[in-house]
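hiii so um. not sure if this is the right channel but i have a protein structure encoded as tokens and i wanna go backwards to a sequence. like what aa goes where. can anyone help
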């Protein structure tokens, strides 16, 4: 994280103030002006803000299976199976209260491009990693919009895993914090509470447009805002 931050700064990218943290928001956005246009780049140091999903998709395994992009030795991209699982997890793990066609269309294109053997391996991988319900939810929505081809066997295998821990993220009445707390270790629970209570100082100064106000005061204003929302 620190090395990536310094490398981007040296390359002219400016970080946006954000309430980033290791568990609550493990990502940061950088921007750079190029030929009059502002480019944005999100840097993630975990593949999901939900610890249970981040553990299901460890970076090391995805990196080992990654492929070179456009034959370039400097760029790598996830293998198709990992790309599909990441797309399904991103939709629920980060934006379960939203629905965007582009995310479902990504699922449609990735699934349709796979040969039958790779689709079978994707279902097996989802079963092993406890992601069947999340993958099935995305593919069902994709099928409704884009007529994504789903075999009866695929539907039966994915729908059978109704008791996966991650399936609870599909329940809108359960808050993400409750799900995180339920499946986190005690060390992660302490970190979750600490990171939710204490926001990044620069983020607070930008949010409240306050350069000289003590950080403790800004933290109190933030807590009051959360309680009244």
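sure thing!! here u go:
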């Amino acid at each position: 994280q620190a090395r990536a931050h310094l490398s981007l700064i040296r390359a002219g990218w400016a970080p946006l103030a954000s309430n980033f943290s290791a568990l609550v928001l493990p990502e940061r956005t950088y921007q750079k002006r190029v030929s009059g246009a502002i480019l944005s780049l999100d840097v993630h140091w975990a593949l999901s803000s939900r610890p249970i999903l981040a553990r299901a998709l460890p970076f090391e395994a995805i990196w080992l299976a990654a492929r070179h992009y456009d034959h370039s030795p400097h760029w790598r991209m996830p293998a198709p199976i990992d790309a599909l699982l990441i797309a399904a997890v991103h939709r629920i793990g980060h934006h379960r209260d939203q629905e965007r066609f582009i995310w479902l269309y990504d699922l449609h294109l990735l699934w349709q491009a796979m040969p039958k053997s790779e689709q079978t391996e994707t279902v097996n991988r989802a079963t092993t990693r406890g992601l069947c319900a999340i993958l099935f939810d995305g593919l069902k929505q994709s099928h409704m919009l884009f007529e994504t081809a789903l075999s009866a066997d695929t539907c039966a295998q994915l729908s059978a895993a109704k008791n996966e821990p991650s399936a609870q993220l599909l329940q809108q009445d359960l808050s993400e914090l409750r799900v995180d707390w339920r499946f986190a270790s005690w060390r992660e629970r302490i970190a979750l509470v600490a990171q939710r209570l204490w926001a990044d100082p620069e983020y607070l100064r930008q949010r409240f447009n306050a350069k000289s106000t003590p950080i403790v005061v800004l933290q109190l204003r933030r807590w009051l805002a959360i309680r009244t929302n």
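oh and The mean pLDDT is 83.
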